[in-house]
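Q: What structure does this chain adopt?
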Amino acid sequence: MVLDLFAGPGGWTVPMHRWGIRDVGLEWDEWACRTRAAAGQLTIRTDVALYPVWPFAGRTGGLIASPPCQAWSMAGKRLGLVDQPLVHQAVADLAQGRDTRERLLGACRDKRSLLAAEPMRYLHALNAAGEPEWVAMEEVPHVLPLWRQYAEVLRGWGYSAWTGILNAADYGVPQTRRRAILLASRVRTATPPPPTHAATAEPESLFGPGRDRWVSMAEALGWGATDRPVPTVCAGGGPGGGPEPFPSGSRKTLTDARDSGAWTARRISAPAPANRTRGQRAVRQTVRDSDTPGARPSACVAAAHGRAWSLRSNNQANATVRSIDEPAGTLFFGHRANECVWVAEPLPESPGEEGGAVESIRITAAEAGLLQTFPADYPWQGNKGQQFSQIGNAVPPRLAAHLLAPHLGKTFTRDDFTLAA
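A:
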């Protein structure tokens, strides 16, 4: 079997299921477990730190681990960096069969930090049976030194191991999500998968097959060049809302408004530069949730005329803002149900728009899932906040496919797994 620790909603599992390979996921979060169940994925709801290893001994071909990243992520307090020496000590002890987790946990500033050492407990126990054949692990970039420690231990056990930072956009994910990766194998040389995409397209040559341009958000979401933007909005006018192009309370998009004749599409151009911040000029910004009663679709439709759409990663001053013609920044969702918003601002050439309002619509879970390369019909479970939490913490299935393919004897090309279905 393939054992998936901290399995989440199934980012690693999606490509394996498409290849007809079954895995067993260990996951604690109730709603991630419900999502996996709805997707037909075998899951044991448990605390990975407490579950015994012996049920898997003698039957584990591959081990996957994506420990929770909140303690290490730039989006949090990053107390994992303070706890890092303790985590390194836990890994060293577990690699020798010494369980000092309880003592070390008491000294940790963030109790989640030590979860990054849990895979070593499984690896040490399975190694006695000559397992697993291969290992794949993923975390935020700050965990790379820990992955290097794992790699040294695995090499001592006869594995070939590689560690490094990979950008998901280089593998067809419409998101510049950088992650620390560990790959190890007993039967083949561990190497990173060759990238299939680049910031600028590279033609095929004698030196390689070439690389496509990074996948943009517009491509991933199926927003064509002549009918974008189409962020999802919810009708339901309310006082002062103006005429409604769709029935009140129905979920629609600007594409539906175009098809019904309520909105004429206009080509949007001049993509915004990457990583620009919003502090360059004072703007009046109105943020509406697509599920909030009283949302004003007429204003959303009007914003499409002469405006360029971008995705703002959060509500901080240094938020990453990317044009829809680019990949998104790293998607993450904190204590608020949704921190990412679609932002429409006047184009420079639009008459009478200088200094106008910036219109914002919160991204939907379906859109966020597509930007993580989950299938369009993926059965996310839970309320909005629970769904966003799952999506933000998941491994993009398309990146997972590239990482897993060599270990599973599969071929994977840039044309596999369409993004918008």
